[in-house]
Structure formats: C-alpha cells, structure tokens
Specification:
Layout (H helix, E strand, L loop, with lengths): L5 H29 L5 H25 L6 H13 L3 H13 L8 H9 L6 H11 L6 H14 L2 H13 L6 H13 L3 H8 L9 H10 L2
Helix pairs in contact: 1-2, 1-3, 2-3, 3-4, 3-5, 5-7, 7-8, 7-9, 9-10, 10-11
Length: 219
C-alpha cells in the first residue's frame, strides 16, 4: 500500500475483480467455440464458481492488507452472486450493505443486478420499496429494466404502471424505453401495437432494421 492512498488501493483491487469477471465470461465463449461438451450447463457452472472463488480470495486479500472495500467492490460480488442464483447470500450481503452506512451503501447499480435476477412480477414492488427505503434514487435505467421485465413477462398491468410512473416522475419514457417496447411487441408478433409506439412524434433513434420488419409485417 506504500505510495498509494486508500482509494487508489481499493481501486486497484476493483480493477482485478472486473478483470476476473471479464475473463470468466470470455472463457465461456472461448470454451463454447472450441469444445463440444456433453453438458455445457455444468461447464458454465464450474466456470462461474471458479470466478466466485477468485472474487472471495480477493476479498480475503483486501482484508489481510487492511484495504477497505467500497461500493464497487461489493457490487462485483453482488453481480456474480445474482448470476449464479445464490440469492440467499445476495440478500444477506444486501442487508449488511443497507445497515452499514458508509462506503458501500447500495446504489442504483446494486439494485439493477437484483432486478435482473427477478423471476416474478410481484417481486418488483418489493425491491422498489427496499430501494426507496434505503434512499436510493430510481433512475431511468432502473425504470427501463423494469419495463423490459414486464414486457418479457407479458404483464400489461405492471408495464402500464411503470410507464405511468416514469411520466409522472419526469424520468421518461425516453428513446430506450420505446425501443424496449417496440422490440418486445415485435417479438411477440404484435405488429400493429409496435407500429403505434414507433409512429409517436416524440420517438427517435429506434433500430431501423426492426422498424422495417414491423412496417412490412403490419401491412
């Protein structure tokens, strides 16, 4: 730690964490391209748990060297635990982050990883309530994640509710929001509805290839 501040020391470890996760993801791609495995799910699981072991080793090393973790450090662990569905550990860690005010109070990125791991519509308001209780601002990015979840779940009521909240709070809907809706409706074969969203005056920048397919298939 000689010659480095605490912030620089922590940042160095965070860069290692990011690199480990990147290498794990790349290894999956490379292995999938090169090997014809009989059980790709098992192979992916072994890679994921190998990455987790490396992350935990870095946490241990930080502790031994007196290096304090920050929110980016904890988010790296939260992200990977969500990915491998260790949700009990995720919530245990989140409780610790929420109850210990300081360098690792949960931020929008923290909750975005949890949102991506949700499986049912009724889990969304619970997580949003937790976000609000912790004083974390719900960003347009978070709203768009929720929009996509409700679109994927085909939950029209949930989708309409979030769309209304975005408008009411002045946080959209933006171009990304419309892109999610148009692509989602297109993928579900609802061409007329998708076209209606695309033709709104306040929408610009939606992917032209998908738009062409929508226009062609709706006529």
């Amino acid at each position: 730690m000689a010659g480095m501040s605490q912030v620089e020391f922590t940042m160095k470890y965070n860069m290692r964490l990011s690199y480990i996760q990147y290498k794990g993801k790349k290894r999956k791609v490379d292995t999938g391209d090169q090997l014809a495995t009989k059980d790709p799910v098992d192979l992916d699981s072994r890679i994921d748990y190998g990455v987790l072991e490396c992350i935990l080793e870095i946490f241990g090393e930080m502790n031994e060297n007196g290096c304090l973790p920050d929110i980016a450090t904890f988010n790296s662990l939260i992200k990977h635990l969500c990915k491998i569905r260790r949700m009990e550990k995720v919530h245990e860690l989140l409780d610790k982050m929420e109850n210990t005010k300081g360098h690792y109070t949960p931020n929008p990125s923290t909750y975005s990883y949890l949102l991506k791991s949700l499986k049912k519509p009724n889990e969304v308001p619970v997580l949003l309530g937790r976000t609000k209780k912790n004083g974390c601002v719900v960003t347009p990015y978070i709203y768009n994640l929720i929009l996509k979840l409700f679109m994927d779940w085909n939950d029209e009521e949930g989708f309409s509710s979030i769309w209304y909240k975005m408008e009411r709070n002045g946080l959209g809907p933006y171009q990304r929001s419309y892109t999610i809706v148009v692509h989602g409706l297109h993928n579900k074969g609802k061409m007329e509805e998708a076209l209606q969203y695309f033709l709104r005056d306040d929408v610009k920048g939606i992917d032209t290839r998908t738009t062409y397919q929508i226009v062609r298939q709706s006529h």
